[in-house]
Design goal:
alpha/beta; 10 helices; 11 strands; 41% helix; globular
Length: 277
């Protein structure tokens, strides 16, 4: 991928602004550390919004570990280009489109060994050249931390709606989530709220809730940092099994505690954005 110069760069910036102007809400999902279920949250937020009738896109900017395609059940599919400046996203459902490096034909076991400038370049190309069309929501899944990928998204997307920070109740995760909250504030991106994932395990046999990773830490951190708290999502083996099979759990098990929690979070985000107009 060659570096763009002069008129090429100006044309790309114009395309990026035009593409993003057709998307009503653009939300970055981030986490302070790995292993907190950030991609799980991103995929299920996107699917839940699509199930409610919204036109939704999900952009996987995790260059080194693009798992969105696997969780959506479309691993091995391809994106296509009509010309050098137009990439067609993959249509998962009539209401949900997805873009990921997993759709570019690299083998599942092939590592992406790129330095920062190349990662920034491909993310900008996705933002400028993907033909999303008109969307209600674009959910952007980023890798853990506050490095190149989330920073690129925040700096390049005109009028980014805001960020959502995912954490688990564990203290070590909460410490890093606080950095993500401050990251949003320092670069002046609205913080839509904090989600506490893996918050309690409901035994499918007796119904008792066991707080494997503790409980309430994410909510307490949000309160301490004067940040909105969006809700808790419990551990659910059914969700894990559904993701491994590439099946939408919020679609197939809408009455599960996990799906209800995700739906409530989506409603909270949706209502907050609607009231902020």
């Amino acid at each position: 991928m060659h570096s763009l110069q002069g008129e090429e760069l100006e044309a790309q910036n114009k395309r990026l602004q035009e593409r993003m102007s057709e998307i009503k809400y653009k939300i970055l999902v981030m986490s302070g550390k790995g292993g907190v279920g950030k991609t799980t949250v991103s995929v299920n937020l996107a699917m839940s919004l699509a199930n409610k009738g919204y036109k939704v896109g999900i952009l996987d900017t995790d260059i080194h570990g693009p798992n969105v395609a696997k969780m959506l059940g479309v691993q091995g599919e391809k994106m296509y280009s009509h010309d050098e400046n137009t990439i067609e996203p993959f249509e998962v459902t009539p209401n949900l489109k997805a873009v990921s490096l997993a759709f570019t034909g690299n083998g599942d076991d092939t590592p992406i060994i790129w330095r920062g400038p190349l990662k920034i370049s491909v993310i900008k190309q996705f933002l400028a050249d993907v033909n999303w069309g008109k969307l209600d929501y674009l959910i952007i899944d980023s890798p853990p931390g506050t490095g190149d990928e989330p920073l690129t998204v925040c700096q390049m997307i005109p009028e980014l709606t805001g960020s959502v920070v995912v954490t688990t109740p564990q203290e070590v995760s909460i410490l890093d989530s606080r950095k993500s909250i401050n990251f949003s504030r320092q670069i002046k991106v609205a913080l839509l709220g904090v989600i506490e994932n893996m918050s309690g395990y409901v035994c499918p046999h007796c119904g008792e809730t066991v707080d494997i990773f503790g409980k309430g830490g994410g909510e307490a951190a949000a309160k301490d940092m004067d940040a909105p708290f969006l809700g808790r999502i419990p551990i659910d083996p059914g969700l894990m099994q559904a993701e491994d099979k590439g099946v939408s759990y919020v679609t197939t098990a809408p009455d599960s505690a996990c799906s209800k929690a995700i739906s409530a979070i989506v409603d909270k985000i949706d209502n907050t954005l609607a009231s902020s107009k």
